[in-house]
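This follows on from our talk about sequence and fold. Can you supply me with one protein entry, sequence and fold together? Could you add the entry underneath, on a fresh line?
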Amino acid sequence: MKKKRYEMPDLLPDSLNREDWGDFVKSRIEIGYPLTPIGAKRIIKKLSTYSQQIQRQAMSKAIECGYRGVFPESERVQETMGFIEKHSDSSWADEMPDNVQRINKQN
């Protein structure tokens, strides 16, 4: 049985960059997971709800990391966080006893 070859749809949403999309499709083929028409439709629909900047970042990250999907929601989280929040995780301190937290706050 011959596999169907993905063809770029003629009507991509205006908000989606054709070059970035084409690069993502090519990367999927290169890693051995070509897009199906249904998969492409769902990814395009998902990306269309985000800004072009988020779309580009998500597709770039997917290509760079060899992902089979795009994850714009993680890019949006990164966009709304400040430098400190991105690079530090103090959630571990929430579980510490009060006296230990008090000592850490004094330093």
The radius of gyration is 20 Å. The chain has six helices and no strands.
